[in-house]
Amino acid sequence: MANLEVPKELREEARKHDMYLTPISKDTYELFFGPQHMATENFSIILKMDGNRIERAIVNPGFLHRGFEKLAEQRPYFTNIALILRICVPESDVPENIYSMAVDEIMGWEVPERAIWIRTTVLEMARLSAWMFWIMGFGNEIGLYTAGQWAAAYRERLMRLFEELTGGRVYHIYTVPGGVRRDIPGDRWLRQLRDTVEYIKSKLKDFDEILFDNYIMFERTEGVGVMDKRFALKHAVTGPNLRAVGVPYDVRKDDPYYLYPELDFEVPVLKEGDSLARVLVRRYEIEQDLYILEQLLDMGPPSGPYMVQDPKLKNLPRFKVPAGDAYAHVESTKGDFGVYMVSNGTHKPYRVHFRGPSQSHGVTVLEELLKGARLADVPVILKTLDNCPPDIDR
Amino acid sequence: MAVNDNKVETVEKAEEKKPELPNTKEGNLVRELLEKAPYAEGSVRREKRIEFRVPAERIHEFLELASETFEMLMQISVVDWLKENEFELVYQLWSVSESVHAFVKTRVPRENAKLPTVMDIWPVAETYEREAHEFFGIVFEGNPRLGPFILEPREYEKHPLRKDFNTLSYVKTIYGEDFDRYDESKTNYVI
User: Fold this and answer.
1) Given Cys at both, which of A206, A268, B75, B111 links A284, Cβ 3.0 to 4.6 Å?
2) Contact A342/A29 with Cβ under 8 angstroms?
3) Cα(A61)–Cα(A71) distance, rounded to whole angstroms?
4) Which one of B71, B80, B101 has the shortest CB-CB distance to A327?
5) What is the DSSP string of A323-337?
6) Can you tell me the distance from the alpha carbon of B140 to that of B89, in angstroms, rounded to the nearest whole number?
7) How many CB atoms lie within 10 A of CB B12?
8) CA A57 → CA A6, A29, A375, B184, distances in Å?
9) Angle between helices A113-141 and A275-299 (to 10 degrees)
10) How far is B97 from chain A (nearest CA, A)?
11) Are B75 and A353 within 8 A, CB to CB?
12) Superfamily of domain B2-149 in the CATH hierarchy
């Protein structure tokens, strides 16, 4: 477990340096961080402060609770797609895909090859756009605004591609049980995607200069929010955060789905476990995602149908799923995103339960890592953990 | 007498099932765990998915054994089986070393549902248990932070994810009949 208790002498020294933050009459005070703060994204933390040091942090989620799981129990299977994708805002394709994978598994469907290719490409595009979104947030938090502006502009390119493919920019409602909702618009779209991938690849060295290889970034993140391997496993830390403590766990490798067994990519692993390691793991993953997209484009979409041929799909509102349960998960940029679905044979799911990575990153892990941190480190720790509050609230 | 016969039959079936475990990584994992915990039932669902059924009294003991192989607790899913009057708790475990997902299922009666906490095994269970407590009203003995978590304080102890909680009537009591939630044809009330 990361022991972040600050020794008494150090704390007193810190208090001397941060005189202006220490109230005269009392030593400790309470600070409400969020939900309006940029770094927290509709999520609040109650900080018990001792001068500039955090003694205790209490996470206070619930600002985004919309009862998706209850609502999903009252709607037909295909209607739910428009609902559950709102669980993950920057990467809305992930909930769609895990939901569809779970239904496919209970139905026993073999999804056509073309649909598999499209789903893999959409997932990787979603990852890339989520990385751009993350660079924007992280750059802004540490004061390097230029990188954020660039990333937002590059994300726009991907959003336009998504709009042409699916009709939506942020929420796509595209992956459905059995395949995808419509076919690729044509070869022009594939060429545009290749151009975008090449463009972002050529801009990576600019990001390195301004953000990832920047002295300011190193100073802000090195040694901040350290966790070790045992702590990470006990707290179910997944994704880049787990790979930053030296565990090479990636759902795409360890529980392969879609086309990933055929693709060639590496899982970057670092050992330090601090915020810097988490940032650098993400930097290497952006490279891998671009490489995966290039491979997919070289492969090209296989011909064939983009939807399962099943007579049950003719009457969608009365589409019934046999009784059973399934757990499906994919690797999102934030970590292992999973869903547990139970069906009792009717046209509505009996229970849909999501497992967002921020359920561990954003509550217990955050509370532990914030102990003893400085106030200025709070946005850094939040952003390097890549906390996504809708995962917790749902 | 008929009841006894049924029991004998189920026991025989369970005994028959045990040798059916395949000689794969998953089958060996189930076999190893069942040797240590003979009170549980185990089966292989498919590649990388195994399943255990454990009586609620021994769930902590079983999960402590399982935590040697399954390092991560991904989620505690609760399913409300209203007809059987039971809650089903599914502990979703993942083994990083073996790359296998395990469902550990246990059932508790709906009234005064109580279970021991697994916070001492996986500290992350605190969050999952708080959620299960708030939405279903299950008490996890030993978890110090059960209380209002995601919902508003006035919604606490309403347990909205239980199957007998009616979203529509709750919305009506809170917002009144004026709250326009009719569909386009103004005939059906939409939640």
Assistant:
1) A268
2) no
3) 20
4) B101
5) SEEEEEEEE-SSSEE
6) 12
7) 10
8) 15, 12, 11, 47
9) 150
10) 9
11) yes
12) NADH:ubiquinone oxidoreductase Nqo5 subunit (3.30.460.80)
Cα of A356 to nearest chain B Cα, Å: 9
Phi-psi domain of B33 (left: phi exceeds 0; alpha: psi -120 through 50; beta: other): alpha
Place of tokens 């002498």: A9
- On whether the CB atoms of residues A235 and A260 are closer than 8 A, the answer is no
**Token pair of A335, please?**
């970590």
Phi, psi of B18 (to 5 degrees): -55, -50
SS3 call for A389: helix
Give the span between the Cα atoms of B89 and B87, in whole angstroms. 6
Contact (CB<8Å) B99/A254: yes
Interface test with B, best of A83, A329, A351, A371 (most B CBs within 10 A): A351
CB-CB under 8 Å, B75 with A360: no
Each residue of A305-362: pLDDT tens digit?
988 888 888 888 788 889 989 999 999 999 899 999 999 888 889 999 999 898 888 8
pLDDT digits (tens, 9 = 90+) for A238-285: 989 999 998 999 998 888 888 899 899 999 999 888 899 999 999 999
**Out of B123, B152, B191, closest to residue A234 by CB:** B123
Question: Which 3 state secondary structure label does DSSP give A45?
Answer: strand
Confidence (pTM): 0.85
Q: How many Å lie between the alpha carbon of A256 and the closest alpha carbon of chain B? A: 10
Q: CA-to-CA distance for A206 and A202, rounded, in angstroms? A: 8
Minimal CA separation from A337 to chain B, in Å: 9
Structure tokens at B50: 């195994």
Residue with tokens 């150090």: A10
* Lookup: tokens for A344: 């009792």
The residue extents of the domains of chain B are: 2-149
Residues of A in Cβ contact (< 8 Å) with B49 = 327
Distances from the Cα of A125 to the Cα of A173, A238, A239, angstroms: 15, 21, 17
* The CATH fold of domain A68-393: Cytochrome-c3 Hydrogenase; chain B (1.10.645)
Closest residue by Cα to residue B42 from B59, B18, B25, B23: B18
**Rounded CA gap, A227 and A245, in Å?**
7
SS3 at position B101: strand
Whether residue B150 and residue A393 make contact (CB cut-off 8 A), yes or no, is: yes
Q: What CA–CA distance (Å, rounded) separates A75 from B35?
A: 43
CATH 1.10.645.10 placement within chain A: 68-393
